[in-house]
UniProtKB/TrEMBL annotation:
InterPro entries tied to this protein: MFS, MFS_trans_sf
Coiled-coil region(s): none
Species: Streptomyces benahoarensis
One GO MF term attached to the UniProt entry: transmembrane transporter activity
Transmembrane residue ranges: 17-39, 45-67, 79-99, 172-192, 213-238, 244-266, 278-297, 303-323, 335-358, 364-383
Keywords: Membrane, Transmembrane, Transmembrane helix
Name of the protein in its database record: MFS transporter
Superkingdom of origin: Bacteria
Listed Pfam families: MFS_1
Cross-referenced CDD domains: MFS
Length: 419
C-alpha cells in the first residue's frame, strides 16, 4: 500500500503539484477561523464575524466555477496566479482597515472570496497527463482526498500558532502569503504551463449542460449537508456529555476514518464502472451516518463517528473519476470546481438547518439530519441512474489524457489529447 503511494509521489512533478496545491488552498481552508479570530480581536461581535465569514464562503462558491471556466479557456497560469494575488490582497485590505469602515471590510471579503483560485479542480485536471496510468490516477484522487483531511487539521493549528506568536492580523497576512506561494509553485511547473483545455462548444451552461454532472452536483450537495450537520451536532453532543474536548474528539475521529478509508481505497484499482461503484460507496456512507442517532457514550460515539468517516474520501475520489467521464469537452476544471463548490454549499446549508433540529431534539436530532442527507444523496444517484450511464465513448478508461475527462454525454463530443 505504502509502496504504491510512494511510486505515485516519485512520478515527476506529482509531489510538487500535490504539495503546492494544498499550500495554495491554505487560505480557503483556514478562512473561517482566521477571519472570526481577527474580527473578534478588532472588537466585532460573533454575529458580525459569522456574517463576514459567510460572505467569503458564498463568494468563493460563486467564484470557483467561473474561474474554473476561465482556466479551461485561458490556461492555469493566466488565471490561477492573478486570482491568488487578488484574493490575498482582499484579505490584506481587511487586515489593514479592520472593521472601519464596515462597507470596505465587507468589500474586502467579497474580493477575497470571489478570486479564490480553483486549485483543487486544476490539480485534478492535471493528474491524467502527469501520471499517465489509470491506477495511478485513481490513487492520486484518493490521496488528494486524504491530503485534504490533513490540511483541514493542520491549517487551523497554523493559524493558532501565528496568533500566539504574533497577532490575529499577522496570522491573516501570513496564511495568505503562504497561499500565494503555493499557487505560484503550481503555475510555474511544466505540467501547469503546458496544460491546455480542450476546444469547447460555446454554451452558457458550460459543464452544467451534462446531465451526469447535474446528478453528481445534486448528490454531493446532500453529502455536504450531512457533513456540515455533523460538525454542529458534535458540539451539541459535547454539551450533553461534559463539554471539553468531546466535540473535537468526534470530529477528529471522523477525519481519521476518512483518512484511513481514502488510503485503503486508493491502494488498489477497482473493477467495474465507477458510476456503479459511486452508488455503492454513497450507500455505505449513508449507512455509516444512520447509527449516529443512537448517541451512545463518548467512547461508543467516537467509534461510530470514525466508522461514519471511512467512506467519505473513497466517495469523493470516485466522484472525481465520474466527473472526468461526464464533463463536456473543454470544461474539466469548471466541472471539478462545481463539485467542490456544491459540496461546500451543502456543508454550509447543513450547518444552518441543523441548528433548529438540535434546539428541538438535541444532538440525536442533529445527527438525524446527517442521516437524512446521506440517504438523500443515495436517492439522487439511484433515481437518476440512467443519466450516469456510460459516456458516449466506448472504452471505460484510456490514458494518457483520455481518461474521458472531456467525454461529453452529448452526441458528437470526443475526448482529445491535452497539449
Amino acid at each position: 500500500m505504502a509502496a504504491g503511494y510512494a511510486e505515485l509521489l516519485r512520478t515527476r512533478h506529482a509531489a510538487r503539484l500535490l504539495t503546492g496545491t494544498l499550500i495554495g488552498r491554505l487560505p480557503n481552508a483556514t478562512a473561517a477561523l482566521a477571519v472570526v479570530l481577527f474580527i473578534r480581536a478588532e472588537g466585532g461581535s460573533y454575529a458580525l464575524a459569522g456574517a463576514l465569514s459567510a460572505a467569503y464562503g458564498v463568494c468563493t462558491a460563486i467564484g470557483q466555477p467561473l474561474l474554473g471556466r476561465a482556466v479551461d479557456l485561458y490556461g492555469q497560469p493566466r488565471v490561477m496566479l492573478p486570482a491568488a494575488v487578488v484574493s490575498a490582497l482582499g484579505m490584506a485590505l481587511l487586515a489593514a482597515v479592520g472593521l472601519h469602515p464596515l462597507p470596505l471590510a465587507s468589500t474586502a471579503m467579497v474580493i477575497a472570496g470571489l478570486f479564490t483560485p480553483p486549485l483543487e479542480g486544476g490539480l485534478r485536471a492535471l493528474w491524467p497527463t502527469v501520471l499517465k496510468r489509470p491506477d495511478r490516477v485513481h490513487a492520486a484522487y484518493a490521496l488528494d482526498a486524504v491530503a485534504q483531511e490533513v490540511m483541514f487539521a493542520v491549517g487551523p493549528l497554523l493559524v493558532t500558532v501565528c496568533v500566539a506568536a504574533w497577532s490575529e492580523r499577522v496570522a491573516l497576512l501570513v496564511i495568505n502569503v503562504i497561499g500565494v506561494l503555493g499557487a505560484l509553485s503550481v503555475v510555474v511547473s511544466p505540467p501547469s504551463r503546458q496544460w491546455r483545455g480542450e476546444p469547447r462548444e460555446a454554451h452558457w451552461l458550460g459543464a452544467l449542460r451534462s446531465p451526469g454532472m447535474l446528478v453528481l452536483i445534486g448528490a454531493f450537495f446532500f453529502v455536504g449537508l450531512a457533513l456540515g450537520s455533523i460538525a454542529v451536532a458534535a458540539v451539541a453532543y459535547a454539551d450533553e456529555h461534559g463539554g471539553g474536548m468531546v466535540s473535537s474528539s468526534l470530529l477528529s475521529a471522523l477525519g481519521v476514518g476518512a483518512l484511513v478509508g481514502g488510503v485503503v481505497y486508493g491502494a488498489r484499482e477497482w473493477p467495474g464502472r465507477p458510476e456503479g461503484r459511486l452508488r455503492l460507496l454513497v450507500a455505505l456512507l449513508a449507512l455509516g451516518y444512520l447509527p449516529l442517532v443512537l448517541v451512545p457514550g463518548v467512547v461508543g460515539m467516537t467509534v461510530l463517528t470514525g466508522v461514519a468517516g471511512v467512506f467519505l474520501a473513497p466517495a469523493l475520489a470516485c466522484a472525481f473519476i465520474v466527473v472526468d467521464r461526464h464533463a463536456p469537452k473543454g470544461t474539466v476544471t469548471e466541472a471539478f470546481s462545481w463539485l467542490v463548490t456544491t459540496f461546500g454549499v451543502g456543508s454550509a446549508v447543513g450547518a444552518s438547518v441543523v441548528g433548529p433540529a438540535v434546539e428541538r431534539g438535541g444532538a440525536a436530532a442533529g445527527f438525524a439530519v446527517a442521516g437524512v442527507g446521506g440517504v438523500a444523496a443515495l436517492l439522487v444517484l439511484v433515481v437518476t441512474k440512467r443519466f450516469l450511464g456510460d459516456p458516449v465513448r466506448p472504452k471505460e478508461l484510456v490514458l494518457p489524457a483520455e481518461i474521458d475527462r472531456n467525454g461529453a454525454v452529448e452526441p458528437g463530443f470526443r475526448a482529445r489529447r491535452q497539449a
